[in-house]
Please model this.
Amino acid sequence: MSLPAAAARPAWLFAGRRRLDPIRVASLAACALAAAFLAGLVGLLAVQSLPAWRHEGVAGFLAGGRWFFRARTFGALPMIYGTVAVSAVALVLAVPVGLGAALFASEVLPPRARLALKTVIELLAGVPSVVYGLLGVLLLRDWMYRLLSPFDPLSGDTLLTAGVLLAVMILPTVTTFSEDALRGVAGAQRRAARGLGLTRGTTALRVVLPQALPGLAAAALLALGRALGETIAVFLVIGRRDNQLPESWLSAEPLIKTTQAGQTLTTKLGGSETFLAWGDPLHWAAIAGLGLVLLALVGAVTLVGALLVRKGAGHAARS
Amino acid sequence: MAGRRTGRSRAALALAAPLGLVLGLALILAACGAPDGAGTGAAVLRVNGSTTVNPVVSRAAELLRAERGLEITVDTQGGSSGGLAALGEGRVEVAMSSRPVNQHDHDAYPEVDFRPVQIGVDAVALVVSRDVWEGGVHALTRDQMQAIYESRVSNWSELGGPHVPIAFFNKEPGRGTWEVFAKWLYGDPDEAPLVSHLEVGSNEEGRTKVASTPGAVTQLSFAWADGETVFPLAVDSAEGEVVPPTPETVAAGRYPISRQLLVVTDGEPTGTAAELIDYLVGPEGQKLVEEAGYLSLGEADGAMETAGGAVGEEAPAS
Amino acid sequence: MRRGAERIFWGTTALCAVGACAVGAGILIATVVRGADALSWDFLVRASSSAGAEGGIVFQLAGTLILIATALAVAVPVAVGLALAVSVYLGERGAARLRLALYLWNGVPSVLFGLFGLIVLVRWAGWGKSWLAGGLVLGLMILPTLTVSLAERIDAVPRRYVEAARGLGLTRSRVVTSVLLPQSVGGLVSGALLGLARAAGETAPILFTAAVFSGATLPDGVRESPVLALPYHIFVLAQDSLEPGAATRLWAAAFVLIALVFGLGLLSLPLRLRVHEEARDGGGL
Model:
């Protein structure tokens, strides 16, 4: 007899007289509170940012390439580019390494060692972002300046530096969730493959990996969500230079531009303008607009990840 | 089996108990400061603003706490403009500012009666990293500074220095130091061209970034340029007179980019605010001003002219 | 796969695993080595002075503890309610929607929680910078962590316990209070410890709502009573690393923060490992 899956609701939970009992009421009240908060967060940012949307137009705000608060021009595109660029760099660096580590843990290590590794990695996931920022400012910045000298960066504060720092930060997330996804593939599959004479490596690559793909994609998306939302560590090493946009999108320029300083949605929100802007309704609306864009971006990524997790769970249930 | 389960629940509860204890203790700590239960926090004076004025005021707050038990919190979020904005919104009682209160502040907060009090004099300079200084750049003209700000030059070799790219770290536009410099450079901060450079916020950050980046330059208070990690440039006037920012030249009014250091209140200062301000302009406070490297009120007669006639008002364009 | 390729492949993955651990070890070692000079009992119990260049971090530590304790107090009741909703009271569709909402909630950037607190609590409610605003915002942030951890535990309670309870005539809510909750306390505690570990290290939410850099000691009342906090202290000082005295203290403060976070995380391990084992056992019978 197996445990009921979380999604299946057995009848015994619903049987019984329906009456107003305090625990149920309290529980549903908590739900109402949660719903209120979530709606409130979105609604607040939306309403507060209306003047900015009106002033610039939706396209103007999202695709505008200049942000000068003194001239009351608010274009978020350079920051969107910065956010995406930094997170892309982080993913490109972290996913292969994290996947590799997860494969090693899942396919090679005995259960005890796997648990030990998992524990260590999960602990690392807890290191606060401000500590990463500290290491970034005092160590990484100098290394990157020397590394990137062929590209003539003005200083060690670049989008790439932030991306590398973020990669280190999201590595534990990628590793842990990838490992979970890989472990989710039934052991019978592995045994069958080995029984057929496939090597461990072929088993991993041709049998386990493809089946774990939804979960692995979800892991990457979860890590991406974290990268998109990180503020403090990125703030300290990115240079906070506004209006840095590649001029042509179809060349190597977006890539090369990462060797220069930039600005992301989160670093702008965490910076001084948020403290200055309240007195000026339009400026504050623009800041709130940035928050809304960030929320939408992270929400979309997380949503896709959630759907993939479900799909992965469906796979595992069927196999 | 059942015994095993109960054992675990007990273990979990055992862990929950100390957590609850910590929670309770911490909440008691938090609540125990208000014996009257009114919780208005009236005794706490809140100060926010410029990182230039901050060392003096923070130190004064520490000493006043030790000597007279005054509760004063000091923060530097948003710099001078952040401090004045906080004052305007009623979030602090005292703002620290290294620039005069201007029309924008009055427009944004029309009901607020900004009352600045001068506690010292400071000067703003462009400071450079060691490699630039040792590469021969010791002074710049106003034109050259404009060229850097507008990115018309990109390498120190164009300015008589070493062949290193110019890494200009612009102070955030809300900072007092930025405004004072922009005003000297362009006559009015609002006239300063819209540019996008690497940015730094606090004086601390500016100094650290310049000290650790080759070819770097930023606007900084002259007192913060220690001559070991970052080096202040002299101003080369069009007539060939080169004036370095030193306490003597600033006091004599020969160095052109000087400014008043202000603490600002909404209306006449009362209570703890008045105590703090009296302390700052008094002999002990002025000693702190000098220790921080700025000019005290007594030393700065000449500079007062350059920095502005009436206290806290816009200085005449120089 | 040929033997050579096989070796290279697994060698690379082993390298990745070692690398992932090495980074963590590197971080720890770096903080310890650089902060060792300043680390002492004295450091923990003295107040800071001269903008962090002298003294200790007692009020930063106290402030962080107050903030996370408040977050806990705020999050636990709501988390229990939400977990019960997801596992017991809501229908299948409702529970699925709530799970999705929790997943999304968990992904919301911390800076947005800070903005929310800034607008609603600091400005609209007129609290100014307040430890309660910071704690509330942190509590909101860690709510999904507690909820999911508890809900998983509730789901893992063996069916026969519930059947036995209902067989004895207990109502649904009695089943909850007498069977489900006591059996899943471990999930609440481990989720709480994980959440607190995260809350202790966050800077962005408290940057806007509760933290100042100097002058605060213990808060006084609710309105206009900010606190000092370790992460904010480190954040401000990270931008000024030239003062030698401040530099060692900075690393020491970072070490204390890491120790706090790791300590909380480590405490939660035994409980989470039990869930692992139980899931493997299949709950017996």
